[in-house]
Design a protein that fits this description.
The chain has helices spanning 55-75, 92-104, 115-122, and strands spanning 5-9, 25-29, 46-48, 83-87, 107-112, 127-134, 139-145. It is an alpha+beta fold and 146 residues long.
Length: 146
């Protein structure tokens, strides 16, 4: 069964479940099977679904944000005041990385491949972008979140 990301409601629990209760809304990331109607998942692979996210948003959230968080914090050890270059800033992982880096307190420089993508990214409700430098094949921007 295909699928890595999912969101749903807890309908059954094992005897050692500690973090969630029946009826809780959760989301998560697994190595496969997430497109099934019902999936059995160890609770360590789950996180609460924020009420502010729709089911569709929650079902597409985990992989991008877990990947970005792992790259920036676990692998990159990003700290407040440091500068980070986010390539592919218009993609899901790039957008997640920008938000995580800003929460950490880093200065973000982001790149997108073309001007059309740059314009779409600049119009995002979550980000205000100011053009810092434009190269022939890459656009760099300094970002600040609302």
């Amino acid at each position: 069964m295909p699928g890595l990301e999912f969101a749903g409601e807890v309908v059954e629990m094992g005897p050692q479940t500690e973090r969630f209760s029946l009826g809780d809304h959760v989301m998560g990331l697994v190595s496969g099977g997430a497109q099934a109607e019902i999936i059995a998942v160890n609770e360590r692979f789950l996180m609460p679904k924020p009420d502010s996210l729709s089911w569709e948003e929650a079902g597409s959230f985990p992989e991008a944000f877990i990947t970005a968080h792992d790259a920036l914090t676990t692998k990159g050890n990003l700290r407040p005041g440091e500068r980070v270059l986010i390539t592919g800033a218009a993609g899901a992982v790039g957008v997640a990385a920008i938000q995580i880096a800003k929460v950490i307190g880093a200065e973000v420089v982001a790149s997108v491949r073309n001007s059309e993508t740059r314009e779409k990214t600049k119009k995002s409700e979550q980000m205000k972008l100011s053009l810092q430098m434009r190269c022939k094949t890459m656009v760099l921007m300094t970002l600040s979140l609302n």
